[in-house]
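Quiz preparation item.
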């Protein structure tokens, strides 16, 4: 029995897309602010995003020059840099691709600035990348020998190390699908944006890639709250348990 809850908090179009042209539409700005407002209402101690989302919205695709670090073996053991932070940003980055430059969220993401970064890695990550994370004070957790991570193990460890009992899972679609497949999503907090994206290759709320998604997950409606500009805030509880 796990000792924490996972709430998947997302904004989506009427056709179930979490990405695409509608994110840039003038009318979307209100929903983007509402997304942060609702995040604040939950006031989570920790939130999680996939590698692609962090690369797009936080590290902006930057690559770190790792050549200044020697390729000396660093044991694949968890590294905890800060357990006294008020909030934690958790990245699922199995290969160590994200170009972090500091141990906390930088000031250009004002709403989350200063939150301590924890990254979840596999053991295939390079020694130099680990040396870099240590140098800038990012905590890291190992959750698998190869690229496909054991997300239950990751959250079990993080909840213990950092005393966290509630996680907000905040996309994108592939990471959401991975957590749902692992039976880890307890609640959905959905901002329904009254727009249609329509492009078939834009990411949906839950994506599975090569993963085989077995369970049909039902949800019970807990709350419907109208938002301005014809939007809705929906809360569903998972019927998994
Ligand atoms: N509307 C919203 O509320 C909202 C919120 C967040 C994001 N988004 C949008 O979502 C889009 C990105 O979504 P996405 O689905 O393409 O990417 P994503 O979920 O952010 O990241 C996917 C990546 O996470 C890693 N990953 C996922 N499952 C894993 C597992 N089981 N084990 C190990 N690693 C795993 C993989 O990294 P590697 O490729 O490195 O192996 C994978 O490619 C962005 O455009 C963003 O703007 C929208």
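Solution:
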């Amino acid at each position: 029995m796990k000792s924490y809850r996972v709430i998947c908090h997302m904004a989506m179009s009427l056709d179930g897309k979490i990405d695409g042209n509608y994110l840039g539409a003038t009318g979307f700005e209100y929903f983007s602010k509402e997304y942060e407002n609702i995040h604040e209402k939950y006031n989570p101690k920790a939130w999680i995003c996939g590698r692609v989302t962090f690369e797009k919205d936080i590290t902006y695709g930057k690559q770190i020059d790792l050549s200044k670090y020697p390729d000396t073996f660093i044991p694949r053991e968890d590294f905890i840099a800060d357990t006294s932070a008020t909030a934690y940003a958790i990245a699922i980055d199995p290969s160590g691709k994200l170009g972090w430059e500091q141990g906390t969220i930088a000031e250009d993401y004002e709403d989350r600035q200063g939150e301590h970064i924890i990254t979840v890695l596999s053991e295939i990550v390079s020694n130099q990348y680990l040396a870099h994370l240590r140098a800038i004070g990012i905590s890291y957790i190992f959750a698998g020998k190869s690229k496909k991570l054991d997300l239950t193990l990751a959250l079990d460890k993080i909840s213990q190390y950092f005393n966290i009992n509630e996680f907000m899972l905040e996309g994108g679609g592939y990471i959401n699908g991975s957590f749902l497949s692992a039976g880890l999503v307890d609640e959905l907090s959905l901002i329904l944006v009254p727009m249609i994206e329509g492009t078939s290759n834009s990411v949906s709320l839950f994506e599975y890639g090569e993963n085989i998604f077995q369970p049909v997950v039902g949800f019970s409606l807990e709350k419907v709250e109208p938002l301005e500009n014809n939007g809705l805030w929906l809360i569903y509880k998972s019927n998994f348990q």
